[in-house]
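Private note to self, pasted from the team thread so I don't lose it. Backbone tokens:
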């Protein structure tokens, strides 16, 4: 089994486990490993790096949010309850901001996978993650995030097992850019080797 198929299986199973309470952490780990396999197969480390940054941002944001929340409750008697309210507000604000930043990195990772694997569901899932994260503050965001998770599962299992390029070249062999070409560092679009900016996302390319 190729690393692409390994990534498909681990990513799909991990995504399913991610929405099941009690085993969600196992699901996130499997998904991360699956994306690492896909990133290696496509020879684009930024796909994995973006998703890893999303995970780190979420963990750090949650830890900081919990700290402020607990600190507020512990010091409440000294501030006549005011710190409890401030702690709760800080907890919610930090968790919300961390979720949005994490969703931005997930969207970047999924956008690249959508372009490189020709699975548009990744792009839709990534966009819904960002919209859902922004709208969590008005609760409807949780519904959108759940839909994004479902689409993420569908996207992983939609990855072709023997994907080929138009010339009939297997995806593993076609992962590297064609001679005189390169991939955008942000969205994965194939560009001319001397291109300074990506025509799709506008990102300035590294020298």
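Design output:
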């Amino acid at each position: 089994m190729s690393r692409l198929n390994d990534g498909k299986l681990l990513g799909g199973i991990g995504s399913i486990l991610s929405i099941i309470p009690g085993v969600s952490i196992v699901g996130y780990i499997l998904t991360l490993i699956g994306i690492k396999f896909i990133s290696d197969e496509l020879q684009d480390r930024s796909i994995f790096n973006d998703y890893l940054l999303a995970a780190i941002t979420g963990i750090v944001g949650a830890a900081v949010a919990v700290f402020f929340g607990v600190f507020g409750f512990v010091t409440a008697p000294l501030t006549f309850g005011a710190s409890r309210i401030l702690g709760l507000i800080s907890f919610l604000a930090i968790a919300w901001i961390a979720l949005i930043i994490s969703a931005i990195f997930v969207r970047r990772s999924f956008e690249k996978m959508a372009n490189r694997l020709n699975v548009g569901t990744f792009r839709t899932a990534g966009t819904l993650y960002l919209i859902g994260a922004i709208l969590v503050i008005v609760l409807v965001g949780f519904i959108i995030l759940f839909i994004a998770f479902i689409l993420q599962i569908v996207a992983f299992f939609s990855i072709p097992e023997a994907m080929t390029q138009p010339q009939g070249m297997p995806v593993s062999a076609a992962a590297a850019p064609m001679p005189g070409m390169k991939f955008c560092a942000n969205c994965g679009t194939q560009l001319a080797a001397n291109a300074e900016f990506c025509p799709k996302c506008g990102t300035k390319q590294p020298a």
